[in-house]
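Researcher: I'd like a structural prediction for the single chain below. Treat it as a standalone chain; there are no partners to consider.
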Amino acid sequence: MQLRFETGLTSTEYVTQEAWRNATLEHCPLHAQGACSFARHGTYERVSPPGTRIPRWYCPQGHCTFSLLADCFAARLTGTLVELEAAVDHVEQSRTLEGAVAELRLEIDLPGALRWTRRRLQAIHAVLTTLKGLMPEPFVHCAPTLASFRQHLAVEWVLIALRARAAVHLSHLPPPLGFRPPLRRGGEHSDTHQHRAGPDPPHVLA
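Model: Treating it as a single chain, here is the predicted structure.
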């Protein structure tokens, strides 16, 4: 299970300060009264930025691992929320997806680059659409685009601001902003309690 690590650090500051060493979970999320053997369970590495490690804990009784993901990082995607937002922003402002991909200079062939870009564009728009449903009052007049949310929030980086503002809804929001598990075939969420540790996919955004 992935949880939010509330921090104002950039990804560079996170790595330089080795901020994962200071991350804490005061009690097991499954056993608030402490009736388990909850303990720290090392870290796992993310590919980007180099040197990033994510702290983990484990509850043997619940057979569940927990990780704390700092606010600067995208969930279940390589890299940071700022990098992701910059790429999607560029696509939103471009006349065509093909033109946007060419300017992003992805170091893969065009069909792969189009799939890479389209997945991220759809993921962000899905997050914003879901957020409008979960928080209709503040975002009722926003279109599900970064440009519309940015104008409404008056911030430079929308996704960073939304992770803090929608903190109580992160378990219900899809990645890369929220921590909702992906859907299995049939529409059920997979890994409802278990967070799978492992390397990120290759970093392809130049």
